[in-house]
Amino acid sequence: MVLFLLLVLVALVLGIIGFAVHGLFYLLIIGAVVLLAAFVLGAVRLRRGGRKHRIAR
C-alpha cells in the first residue's frame, strides 16, 4: 500500500511540474505513465488478495 501511495504522489508531482513549467511536457507524460503503473500494481495486489501468513511451529 505504501508503494502504491508513493507512486501516486510521484505521478502527481511530475504531472504538476510538467503542466506548469513550459517545455517540460514530457514530465506530464511520465507522470501519467507512473500513475497508470500505480493503478495496475494496485489492481494486481487487490485481485491477488491478502496473503495468509503461516505460523512456524
Structure report:
The chain is mainly α. Helices cover 75% and strands 0% of the residues. The protein contains two helices and no strands. It has helices at residues 2-20, 25-48. Helix 1 runs antiparallel to helix 2 (25-48). The two termini are 29 Å apart.
What do the pLDDT scores average to? 83
What is the number of strand segments? Answer: 0
Rg for CA atoms: 16 Å
* Helical content (DSSP H or I, runs of 4+): over 70%
List the helices and strands and how they pair.
Blueprint: H1 2-20, H2 25-48
Attribute tags:
single chain; 57 residues; mainly alpha; 2 helices; 75% helix
Give a brief rundown of this model.
It contains two helices and no strands.
